[in-house]
Amino acid sequence: MTMSKMLREAWRAVSSGARRSAGHVAGTPERDAALSPIALPVDGHKFSDFLALSQFLTEKSDLDPAVATRAFLALTEADEAFEGHANRLLAAIQDGRLADMDGFDSFMAAHPALRSTAMRIISAWYLGYTGTPAPLDTEDDARFVAYESALMFRPTADATAVPSYTRGRTDYWRHPPASLATD
Amino acid sequence: MMPIQYDADVIVVGSGAVGSNLAYELAKQGKSVLILEAGVWVPRWKIVENFRTSPRKVNRNDPYPNAPWAPNSYTPGYIENTGEFDFRPGMLRLVGGTTWHWGGATWRFLPNDMKLRTLYGVGRDWPLSYDELEPYYTRAEYNLGVSGSDTQDQSGQRRGAAYPPRSAPYPVHNEEETYYFQRLKERIGAEGYEFLHEPHVRTNRPYDGRPACCGNNNCMPVCPIGAMYSGEVHAKHAQAQGARVIPDATVFRIEKGDGGKIAAVHYRTSLGNDARLTARYFVMACNGLETPKLLLMSDVANSSDQVGRNLMDHTGIGLQFLADEPLWTGRGPIQQGGVFNWRDGAFRSEHAAIKHAINNAVPNQEVTRILLERGVVGKKLDEQIRHMSARWVEFSTTFEMLPHAHNRVQPSTIRTDALGIPTLKVHYETDDYIARGAARAREDFARFVAIMGGTVIEDHTGWQNRDHLMGTVLMGDDPRDSVVNHECRSWDHSNLFMATTGVIPASGVVNPTLAAIALAIRSADIIAKEI
């Protein structure tokens, strides 16, 4: 088996973390003792696979296991075949046919059946939900995954607030962010 | 003979911004007031937590209560549309009403807005003048803590002085412009477009117990700190003045008495218990859809056959594009103003007035959704989220709709809620007046994009809801073709008033809540004199 370096590292960190209690992943901040360990409603090994796969697909080594649990459950609830698809995706990556996400498009051109599974996982981490939320309706298939830690906010964290979590003061908005010249 | 005993001097049906301000004014003058609210009373922190843990941040009603016995407007089937347009405003049912989530815009209508028929030969006139309403506008602005500019011509016609006339300065000065707004104004404004600051209810200094806005960028669906005004403020103030707020009380019948007066209202609780309450005066303040529904269910106030008709929204269209420079939309409040060249002018005999409002919501979710749809992943995804979010520009354009008798709301004949009360049936068609306005607006869109060196994301949205419900219990001079007079008093029942944006007979292009509150304060003064 020739796992990519990143996936191999993720795999090691996650597997040991999941065995300990699934409360910790290398690279995540220390969590309050009262909040950790989280109780995993899913089998530890499956969960390790999912978290490792998520870390590879998002290129993030510090994904929160609690968020991973919600993402895994939401995706599985929405599609009971999800786990099987995710396993095939993981196996394909582990077989060395995808070294890192720079090669994603060409890899997916060769494995079109795996693309939607990969995008569903990436989407859950970035958008913080699965399914399609309805703007003017109370019924839809959307499920909550994360808000403040949704990955879509990271690239702009220095410039804009996660709505409802401002760090500014009245009238801070008069000036652009300090990074303007290089944006 | 024993004197007649009443349960209250005044019963107000609905605890939203309009009804609660009216109730407060009456309670302050020593009248006994009951406020009946279909929904419940929910503390802000719960709504904020509901928002944060919701998977549908795009859905403004989602963090709010939605019970089978008090369904909100997004419940499937609650609004049954029979027209070509899916009319679906985000109306709430809880103490404080729908101003829990609003942009908070509190423009005044212009004197000319209120003389549309006389000046431009279309639509209807208001039955009172701007000068008659002005003192009540001022009181409404002080109740709400409106932040605004005391120097600009808000008609967009560049008179070079503050307009429309005001008897007092704004209670809160206008906040600083966002960098995003400054840059759009510098570049697009240089080409002849008139940018105006929008008066609004996000106080920027402590006001009436509310803290200053610090830019949480979440006015919709919920301000986490209560800097933005909602009707709950005056539901509480009314209570402090001795009014009683009764939640979980859905009024389903208005009972007629002797001499053309209203005798009582009947409400039902979530447990199915009914109660009958009497009062000297009754005020219907349950928004522009539920108010006419209740009147029609009760066969009340409808000798004109106008109840529920003339439904208007500021039906709109939108524009999204990426500018050629980083502007960093999303810093500060969710909106600050827009472009107002088409707010008034002789063109109104030909096409609708136009408001180009500029949105300033943090765009990450929309940007990321688009990028994921395009299959962008990895480092490029993070880079593109930052690049596009920094350049995102969004306009939300609205048009002045005219009243048409066929655009109407009625009680449903096929569906009821859990209390057995009919839900809503709506028929709504757009017209050529706003279609011609939209054609003009799209010319502006093309220029905005060109001036900003932009790349269009979306410029053909189709018609959109703006949730400004007007016309359904409209006021007028003639009892044969209007529901209430200039006092907002029913032509048919001398002790029945309407306190809702539904009384507005000519819609202009500005958000109607402040006008309805001003009219309601005026109604409260009239009622107080008669009791």
From TrEMBL, chain B:
Pfam families: DAO (PF01266), GMC_oxred_C (PF05199), GMC_oxred_N (PF00732). Residues 146-157 have a biased composition (Polar residues). InterPro entries: FAD-dep_OxRdtase, FAD/NAD-bd_sf, GMC_OxRdtase_N, GMC_OxRtase_C, P2Ox-like. Residues 403-520 form the Glucose-methanol-choline oxidoreductase C-terminal domain. The keyword Nuclease does not apply. GO terms for molecular function: flavin adenine dinucleotide binding; oxidoreductase activity, acting on CH-OH group of donors. Residues 145-168 are annotated as: Disordered. Keywords: FAD, Flavoprotein, Oxidoreductase. Its cofactor is FAD. Residues 128-315 form the Glucose-methanol-choline oxidoreductase N-terminal domain. Gene3D superfamilies: FAD/NAD(P)-binding domain. Transmembrane segments: none annotated. Residues 9-39 form the FAD dependent oxidoreductase domain. It comes from the Bacteria. The keyword Flavoprotein applies. Belongs to the GMC oxidoreductase family. This is GMC family oxidoreductase. It comes from Brytella acorum. The lineage of its organism: Bacteria, Pseudomonadati, Pseudomonadota, Alphaproteobacteria, Acetobacterales.
